[in-house]
Amino acid sequence: MEEISKENQYFQELDDNTLDLVSQTFKALSDPTRIRILYLLSQKECAVNEMVESLNLKQSTVSHQLRYLKNLRLVKNRREGTTLYYSADDQHVLKLLKESIEHSLHC
């Protein structure tokens, strides 16, 4: 019974900013396109055109989702000449993603 009280106390102490960030993270992981992009970037760094080809998506779709993910600091980029290469930027979120995938495969 004491453990339940500690857990409830912990959750009651979450401030609005933390709740908002957690909600944004789960929202990012709730979209199938963003999941596909993050999963690909968890395996390797990619340019937009490579993601378009690998995921069979439109360039505008990939760019829009990358902007969304970058604003949340879930992906980062680096420039090489005129090409931007993207990679995952949050190992905690990648761990959540991989755990969710493993869970789904065992259901």
UniProtKB/TrEMBL annotation:
It comes from the Bacteria. This is Metalloregulator ArsR/SmtB family transcription factor. GO terms for molecular function: DNA binding; DNA-binding transcription factor activity. Residues 14-107 form the HTH arsR-type domain. It comes from Natronobacillus azotifigens. Keywords: DNA-binding, Transcription, Transcription regulation.
